[in-house]
């Protein structure tokens, strides 16, 4: 399955849902030439959402030849409007924008909506609407406002279907049934995707790239992505793998020791460990802007890495734990999509050192990487550890990073994780952590007033980090976390909780902000 990305925030979620159903999926820019799309030999196409309007000049369009390719096609939100606009229907600004949960009412027979109840709730987010379906299409569902919510023409090629709502989000009732109907009943695709089965081919790919005298450098951070990459490369070339682990002093409690222990358990012998904490702290001195801090960490890492890499004889390759969402977030896949990450792992280093890049996990999502990691024998404390940003605790500290702030942030983060583990809820969330703010609050300790700092606790649920919902933390757990932080971490007198999802907020707090768009979005 190929998902054509027109810049919507849910393109990855669509691809993930497809893979969950056992069908391999890839994302390509929405305006990709037909030759590039068809070279993937897709069994069907999905046209994703997007932030622009089909009525707007310069808005992205699919190659017209794809609409006549004979492949089954499913349009979602902006893709729904695109199909109507391109095939002779009428798209207008909606008389009323629809956002959030919306009641959907079926009308007549529909292959796409087969088996669904006559009414269900779906997630809407649009400002444009299909006012008239194209010739040959029938409207198969309307919203509670009477607007077209689904349409189809089963006789056009192998069938063209579209929905205004988002079947891929958890808020849509029976959304997976809609996607399943399209994949299996309409497109007839086979459910043969299993990421674990790709381990032998990934190992062989590395062996085929690396010459018999060549060495590979792999930078690990302790996260499951880079550690799994190291395990795959080690199985492929053995001791010609050189792992570089730089402790930038911004890690979680006990993280450096855990990473070194895990590398030993994997049998990786050539480990170059560098404690560069003082060097990174010096580079961060005086910096308060989130982006400046990120760039300083990236520059310092490159300098340290270069010093270590220059001592590895025969190094021709750099192995990196890039996963599929990283490739999109570090450089958007389609015109109109926002670039989100300014710093990813060791981006830029291959060009700097003349190294060829090895990225065995480049087509996988985080949950798929974890399945592979377990199969490769990585310890649970690596596989199950919550994701952690490359710049480390610097992302969770507002303002300048100092030794005092690091001590506070590190201990507060450890308390949050410890209490989630104790409550048996660590695996129920994507991430749970503490953020140290510059805010001050008057506290009372003993019989004295004390001006102290404010910590924000953040916990979210997610499947791939692309979208996330804030976790409804049990009150007794929140009480224990708050009590421990204020009692055990000097200088903290107030603990708050972050109750905002992604979007509109990111998961991690202190990243560079983009200027807000003033353009209304028809499908966000």
Characterize the structure shown.
- By secondary structure, this protein is α/β, with parallel strands linked by helices.
- It has three domains: 185 residues, 3-Layer(aba) Sandwich (Rossmann fold); 189 residues, HUPs (Rossmann fold); 96 residues, GMP Synthetase, Chain A, domain 3, CATH 3.30.300.
- The chain has 16 helices and 18 strands.
- A nine-stranded mixed beta sheet has the order 2-1-3-4-9-8-7-5-6, with helices on both faces.
- α6 packs across α7, α7 packs across α13 and α15 packs antiparallel against α16.
CATH architecture title of the largest domain: 3-Layer(aba) Sandwich
CATH topology of the largest domain, what is it called? Rossmann fold
- Structural class by secondary-structure content: alpha/beta
Q: Look at the structure and give the CATH class of the largest domain.
A: Alpha Beta
Task: Characterize the quaternary organization of these chains.
Answer: single chain
Strand order of the largest sheet: 2-1-3-4-9-8-7-5-6
Name the shape in a single word. Answer: globular
The CATH homology group name of the largest domain: HUPs
**Roughly how much helix do the residues carry, as a percent range?**
25-40%
- Give the end-to-end Cα distance, rounded to a whole number of Å: 23 Å
Mean pLDDT: 89
**Rg, nearest Å:** 25 Å
Quickly count the helices: 16
User: For the report, how would you describe the main beta sheet?
Assistant: 9 strands, mixed
Number of domains: 3
| Secondary structure: number of strands | 18
Q: How much of the polypeptide forms β-strand, as a percent range?
A: 15-25%
Q: Low-confidence stretches at least 5 residues in length (pLDDT < 50)?
A: 330-347, 513-524
């Amino acid at each position: 399955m190929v998902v054509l990305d027109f810049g919507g925030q849910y393109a990855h979620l669509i691809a993930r849902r497809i893979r969950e159903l056992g069908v391999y999926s890839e994302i390509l820019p929405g305006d990709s030439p037909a030759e590039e799309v068809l070279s993937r030999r897709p069994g069907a196409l999905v046209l994703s959402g997007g932030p622009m309007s089909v009525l707007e000049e310069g808005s992205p369009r699919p190659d017209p030849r794809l609409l006549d390719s004979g492949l089954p096609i499913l349009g979602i939100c902006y893709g729904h409007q695109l199909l109507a606009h391109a095939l002779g229907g009428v798209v207008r600004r909606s008389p009323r924008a629809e956002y959030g949960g919306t009641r959907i009412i079926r009308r007549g027979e529909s292959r796409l909506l087969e088996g669904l109840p006559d009414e269900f709730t779906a997630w809407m987010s649009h400002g444009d609407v299909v006012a008239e379906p194209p010739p040959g299409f029938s409207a198969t569902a309307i919203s509670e406002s009477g607007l077209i919510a689904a349409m189809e023409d089963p006789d056009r090629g192998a069938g063209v279907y579209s929905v205004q709502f988002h079947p891929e989000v958890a808020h849509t009732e029976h959304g997976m049934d809609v996607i399943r109907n399209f994949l299996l009943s309409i497109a007839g695709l086979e459910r043969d995707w299993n990421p674990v089965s790709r381990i032998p081919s990934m190992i062989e790919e590395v062996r085929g790239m690396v010459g018999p005298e060549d060495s590979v450098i792999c930078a690990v951070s302790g996260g499951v992505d880079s550690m799994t990459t190291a395990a795959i490369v080690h199985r492929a070339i053995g001791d010609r793998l050189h792992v570089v682990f730089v402790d930038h002093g911004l890690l979680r409690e006990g993280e450096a020791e855990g990473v070194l222990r895990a590398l030993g358990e994997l049998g990786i012998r050539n480990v170059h460990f560098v404690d560069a904490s003082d060097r990174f702290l010096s580079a961060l001195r005086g910096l308060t802007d989130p982006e400046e801090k990120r760039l300083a960490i990236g520059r310092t890492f490159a300098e340290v890495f270069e010093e270590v890499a220059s001592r590895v004889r025969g190094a021709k390759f750099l192995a990196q734990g890039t996963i599929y969402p990283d490739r999109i977030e570090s450089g958007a896949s389609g015109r109109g999509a926002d670039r989100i990450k300014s710093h990813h792992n060791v981006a830029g280093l291959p060009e700097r050192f003349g190294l060829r890049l090895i990225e065995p996990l480049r087509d996988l999502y985080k949950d798929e990487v974890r399945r592979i990691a377990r199969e490769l024998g990585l310890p649970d404390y690596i596989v199950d550890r919550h994701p952690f940003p490359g710049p480390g605790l610097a992302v969770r500290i507002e303002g300048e990073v100092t030794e005092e702030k690091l001590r506070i942030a590190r201990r507060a983060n450890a308390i949050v994780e410890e209490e989630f583990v104790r409550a048996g809820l660590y695996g129920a969330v994507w991430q749970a952590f503490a953020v140290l703010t510059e805010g001050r609050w008057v506290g009372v300790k003993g019989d004295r007033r004390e001006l102290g700092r404010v910590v924000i606790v953040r916990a979210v649920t997610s499947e791939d980090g692309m979208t996330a919902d804030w976790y409804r933390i049990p009150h007794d757990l929140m009480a224990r976390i708050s009590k421990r932080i204020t009692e055990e971490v000097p200088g903290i007198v107030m603990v708050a909780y972050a109750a905002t999802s992604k979007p509109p907020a990111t998961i991690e707090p202190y990243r560079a902000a983009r200027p807000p768009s003033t353009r209304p979005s028809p499908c966000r």
